[in-house]
Amino acid sequence: FKAIPKDWPVIGEHIVYDTSSSIDPEEHPLDGGILIKTLLLSPDPSVRGRMRDPSVKSYAPAFTLGEPIESRGVSVVLRSETEHFKEGDYVVGMIPWASYNVFPSHAKLIAINNENRLPWSYYIGLLGMPGQTAYYGLNKIVNIKEGEKLFVSAASGAVGSVVVQLAKLRGAQVIASAGSDEKIAFLKEIGVDRAVNYKTEDLDQALKEFGELDAYWDGVGGPTLDIALANMKDFGVVAICGLISSYNDGENQYGVKNISAILTKRLRVQGFIVGDLVEAEGGTHAFQEEVGPLVVEGKIKFKEHYTKGIENAGEALLGVLKGDNFGKSVIIVADK
Ligand code: NDP
User: What residues does the Enoyl reductase (ER) domain cover (predicted)?
Assistant: First the structure.
């Protein structure tokens, strides 16, 4: 991470690929820790949020200039000098964007047993942070009930597609938006009652036809949030999961005009971060118990979008922020 972007990050200016500090996997001293090889990285939208001035407070620390960017990822342990991890363990956690990393003995990494032989990428997607966001957000923030009308934006993506499917399983009526016809076709496949391409269709009209919303799952903010606010039922719930439409807006204007609807419709608007919800639950047991079997039985559909090579990690992140990804974006750094 070389410089703080004012708006859109530029590869070569803010994000640089630097091989000079690479670790020799056979020789590097471990000091009682582990050496891991990066397999997969997760260019989550929140990575952009950490590219900021450290004086600006947020839920995750700002990146340090000159240090690698980090994100969730999957790595394999190549060498270990601690009983906590053994050679060959697959681990998931916050991984610096480098081919090899050395972690101390008590690293905040979780070894995955993957007894059902699911794709490793699921541990940074469907069964990882995005899937957990969908599950805990829907249960704890929206508290969706059978027959309720829910609108989901960024609905074909990592979080949104799981929100849609869990809400359908709970008997909700779901209207969902995404930005391409290909994404709309997928939304129909996963059972939404109405799919809207917000780039080519009139979202406001589609919501009006669908009927007043009990709940809105906001993955994008901006004009979509505005239109959703205008279509809420009195006492409805707005779950603010993400505001991706403004992450590269230097002024952070968010562009929301219909704030008065929060008062006039007496809405409950709540922002949330998945980590807090998981902590309050004391772990992800409930998620694993309910969603794990659905995934193993193939009852949840999930798209993934692959970028090969760590040197293309910056491009993958920009792709997510622009909407070029179709499904959970995964950077494949190494096969094994
Ligand atoms: P996705 O896989 O959904 O990818 C992001 C998508 O956002 C793009 O594919 C694009 O889809 C859409 N998008 C990008 N720019 C815009 C725009 N200007 N207007 C409308 N849509 C846009 O990403 P995730 O599922 O990982 O994340 C979705 C949202 O959830 C993000 O805002 C993220 O920050 C948030 N999030 C929040 C968490 C929390 O704990 N609160 C945890 C995880 C994610 P399209 O083509 O449809 O526009």
Answer: 49-331
**95 Cα–ligand 1 center, Å:** 21
Buried b (16+ CB within 10 A) or exposed e, 83-119: ebbeeebbbbbebbbbebbbbeeebebeebeeeeeee
Type of residue found at 187? L
State the Cα–Cα distance between residues 3 and 203, nearest whole angstrom.
Answer: 37
- What is the dihedral angle through the alpha carbons of 158, 137, 181, 171, rounded to the nearest 10 degrees? 120
> Start-end ranges of CATH 3.90.180.10 in the chain?
34-125+303-332
Q: What is the pLDDT of residue 255?
A: 73
- HEC readout, 107-121: CCEEEECCCCCCCHH
Q: Is the ipTM of this complex over 0.95?
A: yes
For 46-66, write each residue's pLDDT tens digit.
Answer: 999 999 999 988 999 999 999
Q: What is the CATH number of domain 129-275?
A: 3.40.50.720
Nearest to 326 by CA among 182, 118, 221: 182
Q: What would the DSSP string read from start to end of 132-155? A: HHHHHIIIIII---TT-EEEESST
- pLDDT tens for 182-241 read 999 999 999 999 999 999 999 999 999 999 999 999 999 999 999 999 999 999 999 999
CA of 215 to the centre of ligand 1 (A): 18
Q: For residue 22, what pLDDT is reported?
A: 80
Looking at ligand 1, which atom is closest to the CA of residue 328? 2
Enumerate the CATH 3.40.50.720 domain ranges in the chain, comma separated: 129-275
Task: Mention the CATH class of domain 34-125+303-332.
Answer: alpha beta
